[in-house]
Amino acid sequence: MSAKLDPPRRYAALTMVRDEDVFLKIWVDYYAKAFGAENLYIIDHNSARLPVADQVGPGPNILRMPIDDPVPDRGPEDRPFDP
Q1: H or E element: which one contains 24?
Q2: Model-level pTM?
Q3: Cα separation values, 81 from 18, 24, 62, 75, 77, Å
Q4: So what's the pLDDT on residue 30?
Q5: pLDDT for 5-51, tens place per residue?
Q6: Which positions ≥6 away from 73 have C-beta within 8 Å?
């Protein structure tokens, strides 16, 4: 009787960012240790300040999602439900 081997499992981590320049590098460093940088996917929601690729270096997969008609965030008055 032969043992049936299950196929190896595949994992990935995914995040979406826009103009993130603090926590993205921390996220990449943390999840690259768990899954490998080649299994990280970053959806860049049209960042304007600093290109995502410049922050994370080679390895993660970066998908850029353009914004056709962005709505400007003018401050807390535009976010009445924020604490």
Answers
A1: helix 23-35
A2: 0.70
A3: 20, 25, 31, 12, 9
A4: 95
A5: 888 878 899 999 988 888 999 999 999 999 999 999 999 988 877 77
A6: 79
Q: How far apart are the first and last CA of the chain?
A: 62
Summarize the chain as % helix, strand, coil (round to 5): 30, 15, 55
* Residue reference for tokens 């008055």: 77
Q: Classify 38 in phi/psi space as left (phi over 0), alpha (psi -120 to 50) or beta.
A: alpha
**Phi, psi dihedrals of residue 51, rounded to the nearest 5°:** -55, 135
- For residues 2 and 62, what is the distance between their CA atoms, to the nearest angstrom? 42
Report DSSP letters for 62-82, one per residue: EEE---SSPPP--SGGG-TT-
